[in-house]
Design brief:
By secondary structure, this protein is of the alpha/beta class. The protein is built from eleven helices and 13 strands. Helix 1 (12-23) crosses helix 8. The two termini are 24 Å apart.
Length: 344
């Protein structure tokens, strides 16, 4: 049994990762600040699914509280850390940049310091497909340079990768960054397209379709993501013996440092995504077509070959199946079927 810290345990991915680890027999300490960026009730309801596990402990801690975080590391003997807590959302970063600076930069610095001082075997942390910014070569590869972010959120995620490399290089801390590509599924975030669209369609409200429905996203089902995260966590990053400073590979290093994409490797046009959702709901959506929003990119497409070679990651959930599962969960959740037992 490993003892693993999961930050952002009340979040979408954090909840699912925590549950997977608990089901396989690990001990999980989860932390979250339960902020009100989106529904606190949803976060509490996720935690209610985890609390019945004897091997789960939860602490409400904000990452900017460096002393409290250091105290937790001193109290517990963590083997590994899966860092998923962050201020999420591309568009919100245009309105409230300070939240991203504090949580994603200051908070991540505290995580790195705690890992350094407590001999953590492996730090796995959430990066984002948004780091590809203005890049247009598809599919996005971890070997590509990512120097032109188009939102502060993306810039903080790129900064996390640079910070992690520094700690891997200076302190021999194994770190792996995972660039997530539009994760969706049951217990998903209500600020993301699938939840927003489903809620609006069910309530008879129009949905806002950006880039006139021509936007493409590499939608990745949560179960596939969790498998990739846990497999990566179980295999600490190692130095790349073939790394060459004259022709540097952006996804690895002479230090124990790795970057991987974690996506479905199948971009889907937003218009088709909506069609599949309409079919699953049995309701036609009212659509309001709008241009591309500031901070958004027109397409994402993950090259996952590096992750496949490293840990055998192979996304397998088609969008039609994933959306149907989400709709089934949404209807049950809306009907109040979750009461704190281990369901869904």
């Amino acid at each position: 049994m490993a003892t693993i810290l999961v930050t952002g345990a009340a979040g979408f991915i954090g909840y699912h990762v925590s549950r997977y680890l608990l089901e396989r027999g690990d001990r999980v300490v989860g932390i979250d600040n339960l902020n009100d960026y989106y529904s606190v009730k949803l976060k509490e309801d996720r935690l209610a699914q985890l609390r019945p596990y004897d091997a789960f402990r939860f602490e409400r801690i904000d990452l900017v509280e460096g002393d409290r975080l250091a105290g937790l590391f001193a109290e517990e003997s963590f083997d590994r850390v899966i860092h998923l807590a962050a201020q999420a959302g591309v568009r919100y970063s245009l309105e409230n940049p300070e939240a991203y600076i504090q949580s994603n930069l200051v908070g991540f610095g505290h995580i790195l310091e705690a890992c350094r001082h407590h001999d953590i075997e492996h730090l796995v942390y959430a990066s984002s497909s948004s780091v590809y910014g203005s890049n247009t070569k598809m599919p996005f590869s971890v070997a590509d340079r990512v120097d032109h972010p188009v939102s502060l959120y993306a810039a903080t995620k790129k900064a996390n990768e640079l910070m992690a490399h520094t700690y891997s290089h200076l302190y021999n801390l194994p770190t792996t960054g995972l660039r997530f590509f539009t994760v969706y599924g049951p217990w998903g975030r209500p600020d993301m397209a699938l939840y927003l669209f489903t809620e609006a369609i069910v309530e008879g409200r129009p949905i806002r379709v950006f880039n006139h429905g021509k936007m493409q996203r590499d939608f990745t089902y949560i179960d596939d993501v969790v498998e990739g995260v846990v497999r990566t966590c179980d295999r600490p990053a190692e130095p790349n013996p073939d790394w060459n400073g004259a022709e540097p590979d952006a996804g690895s290093s002479r230090a124990p440092y790795r970057i991987y994409n974690i996506g479905n490797h199948t971009p889907v046009e937003l218009g088709y995504f909506i069609e599949v959702l309409e079919k699953a709901l049995g309701i036609e959506a009212q659509k309001e077509y709008l241009p591309l929003q500031p901070g958004d990119v027109p397409a994402t497409y993950a090259d996952v070959e590096a992750l496949t070679q490293a840990v055998g990651f192979a996304p397998k959930t088609p969008i039609e199946e994933g959306i149907a599962r989400f709709v089934d969960w949404y209807r049950r959740y809306r009907a109040g079927e979750y009461t704190g037992s281990r369901e869904g």
